[in-house]
Amino acid sequence: MIRIGASRRLSIEDVVRVARHGEPVELAPEAVAQIGKCRGLLEQKLAAHEIMYGVNTGIGELAEVVLDDDEVRQFQKYLIYNHAAGFGEPAPVEHVRAAMLSRIAVHARGFSACRPEIPLTYVAMLNRGLTPIACEKGSVGACGDLAPMSQIALSLMGEGECFYQGARMPTRDAMARAGIPIPGLEARDGLAAINGSNLITGMACLILHDVERWIKQAEIAAAMSLEALLANLRPYQARLHELRGFRGAVTCAANLRRALDGSDLATGKLKVKVQDAYSMRSTPQVIGALRDLVAWARSQVEIELNGVADNPIFVCEENLVLTGANFQGTPVSLPLDMVGAGVTMACVLSERRLNRLLNPALSVGLPAFLTRGAGMFSGHMLSQYTADMLIVEQRILSAPSCVQSIPAAADQEDFVSMGMNAALKTKQILRNAYAVLGVEFIGAAQALDFRDFAHGRGVQAAHRAVRRVVEHLEEDRPLFTDHNAMAAAVERCDALEAVEQEVGPLGSSW
User: Fold this and answer.
1) Could you tell me the pTM of the whole model?
2) In terms of C-beta density within 10 A (0-12 exposed, 13-18 middle, 19 or more buried), how is residue 20 classed?
3) What does the pLDDT read at residue 56?
4) For labelling, which of 125, 446, 464, 475 has a CA lying 20 to 30 Å from the CA of 73?
């Protein structure tokens, strides 16, 4: 059970447990009390006819339009209707669940002035497996993820559709089956449900969790390739990286050493080059830089996850209403952009090691394209083509979205984060990365089959994990099945689990 309250900080791991694994959620009693107290302040100000943005005024360019008492409640319904303007396929269930948790966390801080029934309804929906359907595209990542969050908020009126018990159905029917009362919307409730970059934040939590696990597998694949290429292991000594001081590089080098522990390369039994190519000896510096970037991105996302991302913000203790732009998605979209580019960079490094495995001029005695029958057979020649295509797509997607603002709302909203583009493209970059790394795993395992010396314990465990999915390529066969199977294995973290079972947990730097 994850209890959400003003005094408990949520982590990325909390979001993963709720969004993917269905861990129950509880709104702490003190949070419910604070939400109610803040709501009382709003009702006092409404009774006094105090002008408050988005409560008794229009929004965006229409903020100067003041609503009368009869219009205030109806306005929230129409706000949700006109903002539920997205496009495309339903966002994955885990993304919507993550967004709902993120929004509950905002309300739990007690500054949003919605009724307690709003977050409590979302809590009930999460706990009973009822997930609103929201189009994947439409958010520009400022004023919040207005389009998808509005589709989610339709459920608060018993409208829209949802997934429940494996079926797609009208939300009103699902709420009735699940025994969840429909709270409806009163003054402020609608805007409080949508005015934050919560879908971007939820997606960022899931993406970063997956990227962190992918990085460890990139280090395992690198260790396999390094051993297959008879690498000089001196560039991975701890002292070398400690002298420079980057935590990510220190951690990466340590993980490489752990995977390679027990290898004959470390004993001096084998002759190795004085210096290897950059794609080999720069592995800790390159992957380490990605590690450091991800650590920063994690800190940014967890700040957002625990912050007050709303507008306006009601400070009960000071009888104060603050308006600004805490819904702005840039603090999350910028890290997502950079993480996507960083994963692409690490994939380029992976492909360069693969190239050395395949090229007989660079592979230190391995057969051309990792096949004994070169000429009749082409071995893994075409695997490189696939990796190259995927990397070019990653490079295209690595163009930052945070500089792509297009003004909207009659230029009232004249700078937006385009954070949803960042989240969607970074997710696609990662999807490609599973396949790129899968191709290196296949190539490295094939190469190790041709090397007759003692391999590192971690490398051996990873090799066994690959062989449980992909057989040795004795003669040519269609490789698309192998590529797809190995990409899925990388996504499942098969090699990571196998290596950590053999040598213990690999280090993290976040």
Assistant:
1) 0.96
2) middle
3) 87
4) 125
